[in-house]
Amino acid sequence: MLKILIKQIIRKIAWTAKKKTIVQILASRCRRDGMPEYGRFTPREIEQIIFQANLNVKELMSYFNDLDNLGNYQNEYAGLIDLAIYRALVKENIARDYAANLVGDMMWQSIVNAKGQIPIIDPLRKKWWRITTKDSMAHLGKRIKAAMKYPYSEPGYKIKLYMDKNVYCMDIYSCPVFDFYKQFGEEEMTLFRKTWCTFDFSAAEYSVEGGKYLREHTLSDGDEVCDMRWFINK
Fold it and tell me: For 48-76, how does the pLDDT look when each residue is reduced to its tens digit (9 = 90+)?
């Protein structure tokens, strides 16, 4: 019963946070990318997009895998909401490429709002590490290892982490959000590829001064592994 309650809280917090980012991002954007002559999103249009996205969330729950691990559950549900928002934007005749870009911006805005992956805890932890850890590589390592405990943890995520010279090598062989998106078609996988699969490039810079991220392969491209490489750009 406790875990069911916690999952309900996770869903409520996630949806509330995403609704906030819809307003934040769309309120300053054009209906067509970089073309103000077509007007900007009005408050009424934004309300309609939120309403439709909420309907889409409920519809997509039939595809949702009720994962036992709370971190895995949180990430998969966040991915579900992103798809729901994307479909709401497309329903409002927003071009698909632009809709995907907007969803990506909303994803990043939610991290900026919460100041990390976990509200309250992440900002405090990040400040503590800055005080106690002067070495940038050690700081980066703490961020990565903390994320592997929550939300990027087993059993949903299968990750091998090791050091190669001055690079943290993170090979991911299983991802719950990828598993959710691969139930759909190429359009949905393209959205996943343009949002979740590019998120870490910005996350590296956000995590620590000089943070850098590179990757040659990814599950969403049909590869067997996401070969993530994290390091400090000197």
Answer: 999 999 999 999 999 999 999 999 999 99
